[in-house]
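Journal club side-thread
Mid-discussion, someone asked how the predicted structure for our own chain would compare to the paper's figures. Pasting it here so we can look after the session.
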Amino acid sequence: MSGYHRRVFENFPMDRIKRVDKPTTQVEEEKIKRVDERESGFNRAARGDFGAYLKEQRPRFVMKHPISGALGQMQVFLRDIVDGIVAKHKAPIPDDPEILSKHIKELAYFLRADGVGICKLPRYAVYTNSFPDGEPVECNHKFAIAILIDQDWRTSIATTGHDWISNSMSFMAYSASGFIACIIADYIRRLGYPARAHHARNYQVVVPPILLWAGLGEMCRIGDCVLHPFLGPRFKAAVVTTDLPLLPDKPIDFGLQDFCSKCKKCARACPSGALSEGDKIMYNGYERWPTDVEKCTALRVGNKRGSGCGTCIKVCPWNKPYTPFHRTVNWMIRHSGLARTIAIWADDLIGYGKPEPEKKWWFDLEEVGERLIIPKSS
């Protein structure tokens, strides 16, 4: 078993990424106030804060395309299995946090995760109240396991970022990460330890701070988004919270703060104008680039020419395939400020971020009433 635990098991060489004691953006933990899930952009749209049209569109903006609708329905099924009964007796397994952490990560990769990280669960990352009923949230587990799923590079190169496949890319990753999280949580409960899965439509936790402390990325210019050093922003995450004794990972530093301060490509490309080209601010104890939540939500929920929006993900220079060429460039921009400047210029010069419609594989369809029609925008 010792050889098993020593082997390199991760999909990407995260062991080569610089580890630091604190995230690369300032986090003033004593100033952070827990947030209410009902106050997220999508849920405010459902409440009517952004007008009658977005309130009307909120229940259908995912379901109006048949692929994202099917994926969204899967999220409904997964909602009912996030928690369960804990075995009365603990399994005869080692209680060494390092061994158990490697074991859980191996399990996640066995279940086809693209990235996994572990941290202590920050109290401020737990919602105060749930959507839609406003029930107080009680989640007192000690650790959080974050699971990432790639939204698929092959689809990303074909999309504009705000066409009919956009929500399907998101919910493919949401449903896959939720599936993995539900299985891991159930497995941990069978071992005799409490555990709960958190996935889209059933989060009790705020995901970005967990990803930061679990060493899965740095904060980027895309609003409240953590960017992975190899997947870029092209992923969605689920979380398992648990009391299984685990060894936390450390945050990472791969030069992203310098890169995002220079690049601004996502802000220039954002169809809604929601992303800022300015400097970072402090908000609720976090240092971040500001985002106009209403503008972002309005396009994603109210998009009349597609289903959702992920244009910022589409155009981001970190949204690249894991090829030898891009691995080389990735290494250079992680280690050199000059290389970052050149890479930003070259990304536009080469034409990255533009759609390649000849690689489109999906049908543009919209559910209207009880029929699927070809949208007028297609």
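Post-session note: The chain is about 35% helix and 10% strand.
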